[in-house]
Amino acid sequence: MSAKLNVSSIWECTGDVPYTNVCLWKGISCRNGTVVGLIINYVLSGAKGTIPDDIGQLSTLEYLKIETLQDSLTGTIPTSIGKLNSLTLLAISNVDVVGSIPSEVLSLPNLKFLDISQNLLTGKFPEVTSGQLRYLEVLGIAGNFITGTIPSSLGYLSSLTLLDLSLNSFTKKIPVEMISPNKSLVSLDLNGNYLTGTLPSELGALRSIISLSLGENSFSGSVPTSLCTLSGLMELDISKNKLDCYPSCLSYVDDLETDISACPGNIIRIVVIISLNCTFASYSDCI
Fold first, then answer.
1. Which terminus, N or C, of the chain has the lesser number of Cβ atoms within 10 Å?
2. Domain assignment of residue 1, yes or no
3. Quick one: pLDDT at residue 183?
4. 285 found inside a domain
5. Where are the alpha helices (DSSP H) in 101-241?
6. CATH number at residue 237
7. Claim: this prediction has a pTM higher than 0.70
8. What is the tens place of the pLDDT at every residue in 46-73?
9. What is the DSSP letter of 223?
10. Which residues are bridge partners to 235 per DSSP?
11. How many domains is the chain partitioned into structurally?
């Protein structure tokens, strides 16, 4: 692929010669003679240059993966990607794209998987409006240079199961508006940012959560005992913060990463213990 790839030539897959029948090219998938999937990486294509603006003309694309092109692909994420209304998967990861995240990406109506991690992206994450990305299940932007606060509008993404904002430069508090509506979240990773304030008790509303990573920030105060109600929680990272102690009721977590001690005192009353997960149905705050 050159820096000026003309993608209009692969709208329709026709021809008997392998060179002209792009459906036979590595990294391209077709259905009924039409391109529906495109994987571009250095191993498959030796691609160099930039992502062309006319990629937005591939209106039948259902998945687009551009990955592992560090030192060979530069430029920005073209806003024309917002025209790919059939996309369910968009992954532009581990490349050297720069600039901000185009808000047009948030308008993709059928997107379920969005991974733009391990790039050189800067600026703020664009605000989500009600109705956008209603089917999005996975959002990963780890390993960039995204700044500002975590948008509370992420709470509109009620279908999310995995949210990874780690290794960026987000600041200030965790917005509670982002937490409460996302009851389907299985994994939340905010590790390695510049977040401050206390851990909101609303984290206890993440009933489906299995992995919660909050390490390497500047959270302070106590760890909320509401986390003890998360019966499926298996991984919890609260290390490298400015937290006090953690409630003893969190000792049931299989993989607890912390550099602080359990709070002094005892849990006064335990009403129900579910044996396998050691879930406490009733507990008191540490004293």
1. C
2. no
3. 80
4. no
5. 176-179
6. 3.80.10.10
7. yes
8. 566 788 899 999 999 999 998 876 666 7
9. P
10. 211, 255
11. 1
